[in-house]
Design goal:
By secondary structure, this protein is α/β, with parallel strands linked by helices. The chain has helices at 16-30, 47-54, 80-86, 96-100, 106-118, 131-135, 139-150, 156-159, 180-197, 200-205, 216-223, 240-248, 254-259; strands at residues 5-9, 37-41, 60-63, 90-93, 122-127, 163-166, 207-211, 230-233. The chain has a single domain (5-260), classed as Aldolase class I (TIM Barrel), CATH 3.20.20.70. An eight-stranded parallel beta barrel has the order 1-2-3-4-5-6-7-8, surrounded by seven helices. Strand 1 (5-9), helix 1 and strand 2 (37-41) form a beta-alpha-beta unit. The two termini are 21 Å apart. The structure holds phosphoenolpyruvate. Residues 9, 11, 167, 172-173, 211-214, 232-235 line the site of phosphoenolpyruvate.
Amino acid sequence: MRRPVIAANWKMFKTQAETRSFFNRFRSLASSLRHCDLIIAPAFTALAAAVEAARGSEILISAQDLYWEKEGAWTGEVSAGMIAEVGCRFTLVGHSERRHVFGETDDQIHRKLRAALAAGLAPIVCVGETLSEREANQTEDVLRRQFNSSLTGLTAPEFSRILLAYEPVWAIGTGRTATPDLAAAAHGLLRELASHAYSSASSQNLRILYGGSVKPENSAALLAEEEIDGALVGGASLDPVAFAAIAKSAPGGPLEQNRSV
Ligand code: PEP
């Protein structure tokens, strides 16, 4: 079994003070969550506060985005090296809001991925179809295009540092969750693409998270799917109790242990 990953995407929420207050509560809850990797992605301005607040725990910090250049006249942008220096170990790349609100292209996402890897960060690469693409039966084509364009040409060790997040755009922030079956089918396709592009062993080790309106009420059913290795959580991750409850429901966690006694 692949070790579950439960990741929080805080989007443009939480000041530094609010970040510290989240960690005050979450750290005590996280002490019983050793069965999974816990990752939190605050806004750039709260990264240093989050790294500090997580010190001494196993909670890992991620950025939500980066720019591919190392430095230069790129007003408003933040490089992979800057993110790594703050103490982040991960960064999201190609989140659907970056793709669809800010117009990021597959090529830009590929450059960001390369820059993240070169700086020692582990990228969490987000892919997923829109509602109109799903309704037009284009989901497979979209996932294939997004996978092949962003994850092309990596070495096996580079590929082993990638986390993938399947986030159907129609399920993000909408309260509409993919059914466990539907999400597992998309994950299965992504794993097949990884097997063709790299190797069967690499694809078996690849952890694929599901994202899209995950909450404590639906997380156990999603995470019970063998193909679903974790969750990328937006709205529900802002509340330490709800985020901990989602992590708790992952296989191998306290809920499962209680069921088996
Ligand atoms: C996300 O931001 O990646 C996300 C999945 O958001 P939500 O859980 O709010 O749908």
